[in-house]
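For reproducibility, we list the full input for the phosphoric acid mono(formamide)ester complex.
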Amino acid sequence: QRHLLGIENLTPQDVIGLLDLAEEFVELNRQIDKKRTTLRGRTLINLFFEASTRTQSSFELAGKRLGADVMNMSVASSSVKKGETVVDTAMTLNAMHPDLLVVRHHASGAVDLLSQKVDCAVVNAGDGAHEHPTQALLDALTIRRNKKRIEGLTVAICGDILHSRVARSNIILLNMMGARVRLVAPTTLLPPGVDRYGVEVARDMREGLAGADIVMMLRLQRERMNGSFIPSTQEYFHFYGLDQAKLRYAKPDALVMHPGPMNRGVEIDSAVADGAQSLIRQQVEMGVAVRMAVLEVLSRNLPNA
Ligand code: CP
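The corresponding predicted structure, in tokenized form, follows.
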């Protein structure tokens, strides 16, 4: 494929191929010499219209470790502030002949739109509440490494599903790979038509976590709530925050994940986030490896590759 815009465009074979390649990069990244030359001579631009710690820094490291020149476009100090549109910004950068453009934007569909306007390969680093494909891939890699499989596992995705691109990409990928997906949230934080997603739905944590192998927590995306339903922190933590007591509803060997950024004391308690069942730090490590795999696979379809 030329671009990576969403998990919805991938086949199970694509996913397995990316995870297998990412495994090689996990080993490479633990060595002292982490450099490869696959992307030597190539230019990668990170274009983030929304804040990011994990995704932007891991794409930067991934590009550099594969030998690319990497430029982080500072949107906050760019001509976007003078009214230049997203499309004009991307086309301006495109005129500088990048090979790979990694884009995050607050509007669902914006990255797809940009991909139709530029000559380079485009990676979706998160578009609104639509998709965050590399997050779902790194989550899958983390699950597979720790549970030795994805098929047949019960994965409970808990919290603000309505506004979550991470949830959407994970639902598509986990369903595709044969996991049993359960969404756990109050009705107000579930997307309309959730029954069509091919998932189980639970409105309380005891029911939702019963028999879960993986408990994936999501933060409340207050920036996307636009003054609609915003629960109080205390009330939300009481009913939906993952603490040690609620984690006992899941299987004894259940593992806890969170894409970050975490809001401790809101959707997750520190004792769980930093506890023995937490994979949260490992998810970050897998993020670099998965993004290296994505960049390498896309580079195979670049002109003169
Ligand atoms: N999980 C994730 O996308 O984190 P960042 O917003 O820090 O990139």
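The chain has a mean pLDDT of 96. The CA atoms of residues 213 and 254 lie 4 Å apart. Both points were considered when choosing residues for closer inspection.
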